Amino acid sequence: MESIPCFLCGRRLPRRSTKWRKTYFVCDFCKIQIFVRGKQGIERLETFFKNAATAEIPFKQHARHFHEMQAILQEIDDVQKEIEKMGISHFLSDAKLRIRSALLKRKESLFSQLEEFCAKK
């Protein structure tokens, strides 16, 4: 069955057809719908399916890179939320100051990791 990867999550989206035989795709996980309209889009999609075997490798690499970046960004967000939960630093005990300092170092490390990742890809 012909399918394309979801550009948000990388899951396989099987080709569907409307009652007017127009092609569309649905990602049940992300809740997005992709409709292919117009002559050029339909022609490009047909070309894509003809070359799907060779196109599969770049799409898988892109999806893997995208998920790695998402994981780093999510961890940065999680660390920032923990820092914000702790409140203002001059009201914290010594132990909480150490924890806050460690979280700030982790956040910097994650930003460095993200920058290195983007420079390589």
Task: Furnish the topology, listing elements before pairings.
Elements: E1 3-5, E2 12-14, E3 16-17, E4 23-27, E5 32-35, H1 39-50, H2 52-86, H3 94-120
Antiparallel strand pairs: 1-2, 3-4, 4-5
In N-to-C order, the SSE pattern is EEEEEHHH
Poorly predicted residue ranges: none
**Number of domains in the coordinates?**
2
Based on Cα principal axes, name the global outline.
elongated
The fraction of residues in strands falls at: 5-15%
Task: Please summarize what this structure is.
The chain is α+β, with helices and mostly antiparallel strands and 121 residues long. The protein has helices at 39-50, 52-86, 94-120; strands spanning 3-5, 12-14, 16-17, 23-27, 32-35. It starts with a strand and ends with a helix.
Written description of the protein model:
- The chain is of the alpha+beta class and 121 residues long.
- It folds into two domains: 1-50, N-terminal domain of TfIIb; 57-121.
- Helices cover 61% and strands 14% of the residues.
- The chain has helices at 39-50, 52-86, 94-120; strands at 3-5, 12-14, 16-17, 23-27, 32-35.
- The strands form two sheets. Strands 3-4-5 form a three-stranded antiparallel beta sheet, with no helix packed on it.
- The longest helix is centred in the middle third of the chain and has 35 residues, at 52-86.
